[in-house]
Amino acid sequence: MTDDISPNQEAEIDPDIDPDEEFAHLQHAWRRRYLNRVVGLLVVVAAVVVAADQLGVNPAYLYAHRENFASILLDEMLAPGELWNQLRGDGPMLVLAAVETLAIAGVGTAFGLPLAFLFGLLAAGNVTPRWVNEPTRLLLGGVRAVPSMVYALLFVVLAGLGPVAGVLAITVGTIGDLGRLFADEMEEIDPRPVEAVQSAGAATLTATSAARLPQVSTAYIAWTLFYLELNARKSTVLGIVGAGGIGYPLIMAFRARNYSRVMAAIVAILCLVVAVEFTATRLRDYVDTTRRTWRE
Amino acid sequence: MTPTLTVDALTKRYGQTVALDSVSVDLVPGEVTVLVGRSGAGKTTLLRCVNGLETPDEGTVQYDGEPLAPPDVALVFQGGALTGRKTALENTLDGGLARESRWRELFGWHAPAEKRAAVTRLHDVGLAGMADRRVRTLSGGERQRVGVARALHQQPVVLLADEPVASLDPATARAILALLADAIREHDLVGLISLHQPTLASDIADRYLGLTDGQITLDTSATDVSDDDIAMVYE
């Protein structure tokens, strides 16, 4: 897409220009800009329509099969009586699986955090020299390129079926994502306090602890809590490839076409994710002192 | 009878802190009143209460016997408080949002007449040919000129300015203050400008108002004021 406002910054305009002349000039520029925008929008819409058609997206087909979906949804998944019975029967198993999911997320995040912190510092352009931060960034990018599900499949080979593979997959994902976020956050800091402590004789490491980390600590904690939340959500599906957690009963129920059990698992996932999100948000607010002062 | 801005027994507290303590003052159009006082004396709170950004705990602000509210009262902020990504013209047009329809307001589709008027405002503040420049690319002085243009585009009856020239060099600061004073006198506006530098104030002030700990401790015309009077406010 073209930039929505592209002011004419290069053209030198006569400072003695009178308002009428300037207005005419502007209107001309606006008309051209408007035309560009309309053309740009039409191109994007056309591209989306063509791509969707190539993928075989066909609303008529979906509409024709609406009965199938509705019967599964209404008669099996959302039938209150059946769902309630399923939840009562599967309750203990689902709670255990949810706790395991939460543990995978927690342990995975905890394992990944120190490494993400370390790589985050190494990848920050304002902390380390180019020959360190560029390869580190590249490494983090490579780690991020592989989806968590693929890591889970790989670690199942290493650690066997079960939550250990899930923990390792979450750990590696956390290093890749959080490391990058930590590095980006670090590069946004105000360089002046760093220069101030450097002029007082601080070396890289001391300058980092004295002037860099204090500027990012709140953001780092907020990002970590956000990642805990995100990892809890990711962990719910790792079981699909046998890496532990609530994804396993979910995929088994799908295979057995037991849709009320599927719904029971979805309800458990929903409760888990909402609970983690609620707790993480509370913690983040508590940590974020700036936000606290604004609210008071 | 000339209309007056009447501030009556204005009180504002933040928790235990009393920011304004029963402030009463009358201001008349066409007169430049400079508000002096130390940091934390309540200058900003007074301006924000008059503008309606803050709701006073007690007291009223009236113009010509009617409650005063935006867009009739405009505030020029420290540093301009502009949107850097938008152009000088777009920032100026924001001053007229209250006059335009909901849809125009929402999508920024300004009426041609508004755009034409905004170009003139920019010329009035000395920014001929700059309408299409992004504010981010302008100098501090130019930005504050856009800030003044936006305030004037509101077509206010009361023009307030909160430290409008803080962080500008003295020459630029004088130019911006002259611009504000001219606008106040030419359009017959009630003008109240808070300033940290009394030396700059003497160029434009018709009247001095001093605040100390939320109370008015100085209210003198510029012809009668002495340096000691102003120094007192800062003690």
The major beta sheet of chain A can be summarized as: none
- Distance N to C terminus of chain B: 38 Å
User: Count of helical segments of chain B?
Assistant: 8
The class by helix and strand makeup of chain A works out as: mainly alpha
| Spatial shape of chain A | flat
The averaged pLDDT of chain B comes out at: 90
Unreliable runs of chain A: 1-11
Order of helices and strands of chain A: HHHHHHHHHHHH
State which percent range the strand residues of chain B make up.
25-35%
Would you mind describing this structure in some detail?
- The complex is a heterodimer of chains A (296) and B (235).
- Chain A is 81% helix and 0% strand.
- Chain A has 296 residues and is mainly α.
- In chain A, helix 3 packs across helix 11 (259-287) and helix 4 runs antiparallel to helix 5 (130-145).
- Chain A is flat, with a radius of gyration of 27 Å.
- Chain B has 235 residues and is α/β, with parallel strands linked by helices.
- Helix content of chain B is 33%, strand content 26%.
- Chain B has helices spanning 43-51, 88-94, 102-107, 112-124, 140-153, 170-186, 198-201, 227-233; strands at residues 5-14, 17-27, 32-36, 58-63, 66-67, 73-76, 158-162, 190-194, 207-212, 215-221.
- In chain B, helix 6 (170-186) links the parallel strand 7 and strand 8.
- In chain B, helix 2 (88-94) packs across helix 4, helix 2 (88-94) packs parallel to helix 5 (140-153) and helix 4 crosses helix 5 (140-153).
- The radius of gyration of chain B is 18 Å and the shape is globular.
- The mean pLDDT of chain B is 90.
- The A-B interface holds A 5, 7-9, 13-19, 22-23, 26, 29 and B 85-87, 89-90, 115-116, 119-120, 123, 128-134, 137.
